[in-house]
Amino acid sequence: xxxxxxxxxxxxxxxxxxxxxxxxxxxxxxxxxxxxxxxxxxxxxxxxxxxxxxxxxxxxxxxxxxxxxxxxxxxxxxxxxxxxxxxxxxxxxxxxxxxxxxxxxxxxxxxxxxxxxxxxxxxxxxxxxxxxxxxxxxxxxxxxxxxxxxxxxxxxxxxxxxxxxxxxxxxxxxxxxxxxxxxxxxxxxxxxxxxxxxxxxxxxxxxxxxxxxxxxxxxxxxxxxxxxxxxxxxxxxxxxxxxxxxxxxxxxxxxxxx
Length: 258
Description:
The chain is an all-alpha fold and 258 residues long. 54% of the residues lie in helices and 0% in strands. The chain contains eleven helices and no strands. Helix 5 packs across helix 7. The radius of gyration is 44 Å and the shape is elongated. Mean pLDDT is 77; it is low at 1-5, 25-38, 52-59 and 89-98.
């Protein structure tokens, strides 16, 4: 603006620029003529920065966003660390020497108790320790061979020396898997898991004369029979021939020496 009287020409000073405008790169600063300058960062990269930082808050808006991201990352890291800590603690709390049964281990225990557990469900027996113990005593009265020996070890026979039948009835009342029950029984008496079923003899084709007396006696034991007065191998063979039609009718029908 020219001064009155033809003096020196003076222009008004430019308006002041705020700190916020400076932080945004002078996006709304005016030039010397009072006109608004172009928005800083108006290109593709500038638009991307504005989307991240926020149009309204400028650089200041990025601070809470970054803090929130860091907090979420820390929370995820803390959860992973907590899971790892609990897993390590669980391993430390396991009893010494505790491990799952191998395939085929405790076969008599697992097979017998598995069949017994299924019979309880089929007969709608109440799953209480007292009811299970009562039914187990009944089943053990009919058990023969290695299964009868298992009943003896857990105290479910009249002549048992020890009584740990509650180690079966109590966990089974809570539907604990029979493998876990047998694993615990093994710690009480290692003989329980040493029991194995004898190899089955195919009576339809087996040559009884080639079997040992022990094997012939076992056939009769499996049938719940005895051979009173038998002294020779031929006596056991004759007794088996007599009883085979009753206990193994199919095998008896397939043999030609009966």
